[in-house]
Amino acid sequence: MMKLSTLLSTIQIKSSSLSGDPEIHAVCYSSHNATPGSLFVAIKGLKTDGYQYISQALEKGSVAVLAEKPYETKTVVIKNSREILPIVSTRFYQNPSEKLVLIGITGTNGKTTTSYLLESILQVAGYEVGVIGTINYRFRQETYPNSMTTPESTDLQRIMVQMKNQGVSHVIMEVSSHSIALHRVNGCAFDVGIFTNFSQDHLDYHETMEQYWDSKKRFFTDLLSHSSKKNRIAIVNGEDSKGKVLQECLQIPYLVTGTSSFCDISMKIEQHNLQGIQGYLLIDGNKIQFQSFLCGDYNVENILSAAGAAKALKISPKTIAKGISSLKGVPGRLEKVENYQSRYVFVDYAHTPDALKHVIQTIRKLSNHRLICVFGCGGDRDSQKRPLMGEIASHLSDIVILTSDNPRTEDPFKILAEIEAGISKNIFKINPAQIDTVSNGYMIIPDRKEAINHAIRLSNENDIILIAGKGHETYQILKDQAIFFDDRIEAQKALASLRVKI
Predict the structure, then answer these.
(1) Percent of the chain with pLDDT over 90
(2) Which burial class, exposed, middle or buried, applies to 1 when counting CB atoms under 10 A from its CB (0-12, 13-18, 19+)?
(3) What pLDDT score does 202 carry?
(4) Contacts of 344 by beta carbon, 8 Å cutoff, 6+ apart
(5) Which DSSP helix (H) or strand (E) runs through 346?
């Protein structure tokens, strides 16, 4: 419990229809979570405005409301609800990140894999670790569903309190560009910030690449630089062009990772195939042997990012190498679907042009067998990337099957047409009925289950089937309804029913 006046100290108040100074028992931004004694903060969401739900929050027992315009009762009017929400949330939960080692990871791709790698390293080092990310949030051997990569500020603070109270010492957080732009991570005291890479994504929200980059950059120049932590430090991927730009902007210490000799943390690769990577980490003049079950040049960068953060946290090189070797894989990240049909089937979360390009190039580099790629693009998201992904997949794969991802409220056929627009006119369009005679080209199968089944059926021994876009997701969003759907399970079913071609 906390007095409202304590929560609002230093916050400029424009007007108020509230009498007294109520005790606040909870902070919420959704009327569904309003309880007796709660403070309801009316924020504007991407689809609705919390102001419309003030009456419901009051009916459920909220004793005070923060809003950007007056309401008939119990309302304190402030300038910007989104900027105020993290302030009151951090105060209500008594600033848990101050008592934790907090590592933030941002970048277009690689956040999840880097978080798994760093989690493994920290666990080998003997720390109790919590992770907040795209797949879930987890700590103390328990996992919890996470509806967005970086939760709203109130939820973040609550989760960190839960972690702290359960003995967690280190928290790894995936920090999305949305969360930075919407102030969700304001109030978090970061010790380490990791920059993985930068490429096109989320232009449905940020509108331009400049705005998108500005959001990523501000994590370092504003949030990390102004963190209350004494030894804050940035880990920058020196292989990425924006990593070089970021270095020029930083006013705090930073370490550069990459395969070049000038990098603070680098690597020498001795063996690299679809089974993983073996080589040496070069840290502080030490040459430490390691092996990883991950593969791909982008995972080389992710491994180095995690190693850089571990070095910044003063973990020994031998422990870093052991932690990297201990990670068997990451859900939905070039995840292998085991089978007895002599096919190599991978499920990957790649849903941006850059990610799709890198995962296909990785497979091409490590194998000379035929590649069949199944993918689509999400609805109500950046439409500009659709033709780009069509172009990439069709040029780098032997066969491409365009299908639905999460159409959401968009027409699936419109999405597919926009992907198809990027495919070269020189690439043959296949009729799915020609399945037994196909050698190269592309086809369109809107039903994702049918598309996966077709890919498996037209494959031969030693072929590689890449099912991209949804990765770890166990649902498909059709209009406003989510149905159960798991690429891995559908691939397993198709493989089980496969009959050997004669």
Answers:
(1) 87
(2) exposed
(3) 60
(4) 274, 336, 367, 369, 462, 463, 464, 465
(5) strand 344-348
Using only the alpha carbons of the chain, give its radius of gyration: 24
Q: Could you tell me which CATH class the domain 335-496 is placed in?
A: alpha beta
What was the pLDDT predicted at 501? 47
Q: What angle do CA 406, 410, 414 make, to 5 degrees?
A: 100
Mean pLDDT for the stretch of residues 55-71: 97
Residue found by looking up tokens 């007895």 in the block? 340
Mean pLDDT of the chain, nearest integer? 94
pLDDT bucket at 502, cuts 50 / 70 / 90: very low
Per the CB < 8 A criterion, the answer to whether 14 and 67 are in contact is: no
For residue 48, is pLDDT > 90?
no
User: Residue 376 corresponds to which tokens in the numbers above?
Assistant: 């689509």
64 backbone φψ class: left, alpha, beta (φ>0; ψ -120 to 50): beta
CA distances in angstroms from 311 to 42, 283, 478, listed in the order given: 42, 8, 44
As a whole number of angstroms, the distance between CA 1 and CA 322 comes to 44
In b/e form, how buried is each residue of 197-224, taking b as 16+ CB within 10 angstroms?
bbbbbbbebbeeeeebbebbbbbbbebb
**How far does CA 17 lie from the centroid of its chain?**
41
Reply yes or no on whether the pLDDT at 327 is more than 50: yes
3-state SS, residue 255: strand
The CATH 3.40.1190.10 domain(s) of the chain lie at 96-326
Both tokens assigned to 440: 């190269």
> Which two three-digit tokens encode residue 222?
């504003």
Residue 477 burial (CB count, 10 A): 19
User: Which of 449, 360, 433, 342 minimizes the C-alpha distance to 400?
Assistant: 360
Are 425 and 407 in contact by the 8 Å Cβ rule? The answer is: no
The CATH superfamily of 2-80 is MurE/MurF, N-terminal domain (3.40.1390.10)
CATH class, 96-326 region = alpha beta
Whole-angstrom distance, CA of residue 94 vs CA of residue 263: 39
pLDDT at 47: 78
Pairing assessment for the beta strands 335-337 and 75-77 based on DSSP bridges:
unpaired
200 neighbors 377 (Cβ within 8 angstroms): no
Domain with CATH 3.90.190.20 in the chain: 335-496
Q: What single-letter amino acid sits at 160?
A: M
Secondary structure element (H or E) that encloses residue 348, with its range: strand 344-348
Distance CA 229, CA 192 (A): 9
Name residue 274's beta-bridge partners: none
Q: What is the mean pLDDT of residues 352-360?
A: 94
Instruction: Dump the DSSP string for 159-198.
Output: HHHHHHHTT--EEEEE--HHHHHTTTTTT---SEEEE---
CATH 3.40.1390.10 location in the chain = 2-80
Pairing of strands 142-144, 137-139: antiparallel
User: What count of other Cβ atoms lies within 10 Å of the Cβ of residue 247?
Assistant: 15
Q: Is the pTM of this model over 0.85?
A: yes
Cβ 27 vs Cβ 58: under 8 Å = no
